[in-house]
Here is the input.
Amino acid sequence: MIRDKSLQPLSWQHHDTLMACLMIEKGVKKNADIKVLQDFTRQIWENDISKHFTLEENYLVPQLRQKNFPEYLIRSLLNDHDLIRNFSARLLNGGASYKLFLSFAGLLEQHVRFEERLVFEKVQELIPDADLEKMATHFPSKESSTCKTYPIKFWE
Here is the structure.
C-alpha cells in the first residue's frame, strides 16, 4: 500500500533508522571502534530516534486510542519503545559490546518493520484523512538525519 502523505515524515524517519541499523551492523562486521559506535548511537538516539518516539507517543498513539485501534498493537508499539530505550541506555552508559550493538540494531529494525507493515497499514485503514492531516501538522518536514551527516564512515 502507498503510504499516506500524512505519515510520510514518520516513514522517512523509519527509512533513516533502517540505514542507521545497517551502518551499525556493517561497523560491527568491520570491528569499528566501540567508542565510535557509541558516539554514533548516542547521536542517532538523541537527534533522531528518541524524538521520533516522542512524536509517535504524543500524537499518533492518542489518535489510535481515540479511533479504537487494536490495543494489542498499541501495547506492542509502546513496549518496543521502552525496550529500545533500555537497550540505548545500556549501550550509551558503559555496557557496549559488539553483540549488544547487533541486538540493538536488530530490535530497532524489527520495530520499524512492525510499524511500517502492520501499524501504519492499519492506521491508513481506520483513521480518516482529515484526522491524519491534523496529526501530521506535528510531524517535521523531511530533514537530514544523523546517519546521513555522521562524519566518521566507520561502516566503510
In short: The chain is about 75% helix and 0% strand. The mean pLDDT is 92. The two ends are 33 Å apart (CA to CA). Residues 27 and 155 are 4 Å apart (CA to CA).
